[in-house]
Amino acid sequence: MQRTVTDRYLPPDREAFVAAEPPSGRIIVIAPTRAACETIELALGLRIPTILEKQHGQEIRELAAAGKGFGIVAGTGTGKTLSIRPMAETILGTDVLKVGVVNREREATPETPTWNVIVVTTGIARRWFQDGDILPTDTLVVDEIHQTSAELELCLALGKRVGCRFIWLSATVDPSFYARYLNAAAVLETSAFDPAKAADVKIVRKDPRTFLDDRFLQQVVKERRGVGMFLPTRAGVEEAAEVVRTRFPRINAAFYHGGEPIRVIRPFLEGEEKKPYFLAMTAAGQSALNVQGLDTVVIDDTRFSNVIERGKNVLTRLHLGANEILQMAGRVHGRVAGGRVFILSDRDIHFTSLKPTAPEFQLAGDSERVAMTCADLGVAADQLELPVPLDRVAYRKAVSLLEHRGIIENGRLSRYGKSVEAMPVDRPWAELLVNADDELVPYLAVMSSIESLHRMTREERDLSGIIVPGSDHLTAYNLYAEAFSHCGYIGEVYGLPRHLFDESIESWAEQRGVLVKAIEDAALATASIYRALGMELPTKMVNARDHIYRKFTELLAQYMPFDLVIDEHTADGTEARVSKTSVAGSWGAIAGDLRYFADRSGIPRAAIEGTQIPMQLIHRYATRGKVEVVYDPRRKHGPLVLKRSLDYFGFELESELETVDVFPDDLAKEARHALAEAMARGEARHFAVKQNREVIEEIREAYKRSGGTTKRLGLPELIALYEEQLAEVSSMEAFRTARLGIDRDRFVPLDVRERLERLPDQVTIRDRDVEIDYDVEERDGGRLGVARLRLPEKVARTLTAAEIPELDRPARFVVLRGQRGAVRADTLDELQERLAQPWSPDEVEETQDDRAMLSHAENEVRRIAGEFRRHRRGGGERHGARHGPRGGSRSHGRGGSNTGRRRRGR
């Protein structure tokens, strides 16, 4: 029985909330984080003179009063957050602001309709849009709009759909995109930059550890400097602080990242920490902090960002963008006398030439979130004016997955889908919580509130006595349970019950190597889950043992909402290693979060952390697949087979193959199609395959030479042609003797063929014969014949447009580079630009039909390049065989030996 879930973040009485809408509409402030909500709430109660008020105060009030949308781009310390109050007073026509906050720890209440200014996080704002609580009369004030996220970008699109007015605040970025997308009447720009306080900026070719040498640290002590070092990783900031603390105890050294509570560096924020000091921070950790006394900034020119590659979020090491460098350096540049900035980089950076750029959007990597939002609203994704083009392929896959799981029905969220959507956790955990019994709820609530065991702990950790072998999820739960048993109690925050921890949590966390903030965040999220389920928080947390492991894996096997890896491979065959920090074994089935990262060569790799599921449970919940007719060219004496598979969430666990001689009546059509497809692909054992090969090539070449005016004979057309000729065939014996021919004249009449054959096959450029590959481009629904010149690379690099001979159609260019692949371009300038790059473009995945229409030379180059890449990545048949799953075979069937194979997946 599914649970009833209440979304506590929506106004409890929607009708009362909408009815109480003031004539001016409400001010809805969208903040990037919970901490930002608190800062904005504080700012709405203050009146403090600021640089922004001094420079643009009157303009801000005039724009607010005129009902126009606008943007403010302002540097740190200018007071942009404090400007929200005068905007709100002007729009609402009153200085009586009734301010309320709704975020993870502060729910909507019966008093919510009385608020005229409401501060929400991006996720809550998206929920309000879906519920229809944000109206066209409301004004959306988006704070820190440059801190992009999938939730924020969805809110922007939803706000445009509703018709709200936007006022947006940003740090240093190029505002042109936001101005255009949000229809801003004006963009007000200001900064606290004082040219007299311009910092001394140096580019240093050192890594962070090498940079922190005795010479630099002695200078810090001598000049009593306040140093902030910005590094990309949690481990990096901890190591940097430890290096300074160990070698120079006179320097007050500390670190801060997203895993630490803000209180650990409060002395630095409040000016209590005496110089010299050294504070190492991640970019995420420092974004909203104003460190007092800072006069030196050290920037590691490295970041790890998610790059969307073929629908996958791949964590990739990149250089910092101009915005990040300017924002980090802006902590002291132009604000502090005698400021110094060191940029640790392996590239030449001209700091004075850096200009703000447009932000990098995240929405393209969260197609499932878009799919669920659109289904809840009953709109198609193309009806939302998203700020970034959506990956259509990934979106369709997400919709298909959600339909398969029963979350979307007929384009809308199902009843089950609405319960899942109302849970304040990610969709996979929400599904488990909605379907679990009461005994598992405490474990699921905590596990869903912890990002991962790896992110919860430091590199040096002590998990003795709490590991649940095979489950990172339950091990993470046990850490939380032990923390609560040793240091926790039930208390209240904002009037809501929550697990709280006393001061002893610090020493416990130090001993275990656990991040305190991960425990505190889990307590907050756990409380919100219990309120959504209408259950009381547990006063005792019992460690998970074998009994709970069995129940949890049974639930996982039954519903399987997570990514699944079997024998270190995903369902599509991608290799996925178990994370080094995981307590799960390498083999068998593991359910959890699959994360992609780019290795040092830039090649995407996959790793998983999660819970190991016994294979007997996998088999218990597996389903028999539909009987398929398959042509297997490797089977010499019985290539046509009936395949019955045992499937489990995309994996083919095993299959039974039965040789087919006479086609079963109910599968005769499928059998003919399988044979026709095998013929078209050149895989069938039939004399016509070789006999027709030359004719097929001639017809395809004629199609390309004609610019697409003759009949096309791609893979679909060829399959249909063979299927037509096999209409009366009902056995393999009849197939082997069937006459399967292709009539040239049906596709290309003789006179047309002769005319096309007279077209030149090559041209002369710089006394060299250059081959011409004729081709047809299909763009915007039309066809265009082109002549692709196959240029030698040496010639291509220096060729000019005047040297290209006149042809009867547009020229395109290709340079074949053997094992490095091919470089193609529409223009000569584009070709030369691509040739100047250090690497050839990656080979694009194409369909069999696409490859069939390529020239022989390009096909050969692509084959060589593919083999070369597989060799570099350690792939190939031997690699696949070594890591493939083990399995037995079965023998069934009529008229031959039939082998069953256990496979990783389709």
Helix/strand/pairing class, anyone?
alpha/beta
What is the CA-atom radius of gyration, in angstroms? 32 Å
Unreliable parts? 842-848, 875-906
Number of helices: 35
**Overall mean confidence score, pLDDT:** 87
Q: How many strands appear in the DSSP assignment?
A: 32
Fraction in beta strands: 15-25%
Broad shape: globular
Quick structural summary:
The protein has 906 residues and is α/β, with parallel strands linked by helices. Helix content is 37%, strand content 20%.
Q: How are the secondary structure elements laid out?
A:
Elements: H1 14-19, E1 27-31, H2 34-43, H3 51-65, E2 70-74, H4 84-92, E3 99-102, E4 117-121, H5 122-131, E5 139-142, H6 150-162, E6 165-170, H7 176-181, E7 186-190, E8 200-204, H8 208-211, H9 214-223, E9 226-231, H10 234-247, E10 252-256, H11 266-269, E11 277-282, H12 283-286, E12 296-300, E13 303-309, E14 312-318, H13 322-329, E15 340-344, H14 367-377, H15 392-404, E16 408-409, E17 412-413, H16 415-422, H17 427-435, H18 441-447, H19 453-456, H20 472-487, E18 488-493, E19 496-501, H21 504-512, H22 516-533, H23 546-559, E20 563-566, E21 576-578, E22 589-598, E23 604-613, H24 615-620, E24 623-624, E25 628-631, E26 640-648, E27 651-659, H25 668-680, H26 687-705, H27 715-725, H28 732-737, H29 744-747, H30 750-757, E28 762-765, E29 768-779, E30 782-790, H31 793-798, E31 811-816, E32 822-825, H32 828-835, H33 848-852, H34 856-872, H35 877-883
Parallel strand pairs: 1-4, 1-5, 2-6, 2-7, 3-4, 5-6, 8-15, 9-11, 9-12, 10-11, 12-15, 14-22, 21-23, 30-31
Antiparallel strand pairs: 13-14, 16-17, 18-19, 20-22, 22-23, 24-26, 25-26, 26-27, 28-29, 29-30, 31-32
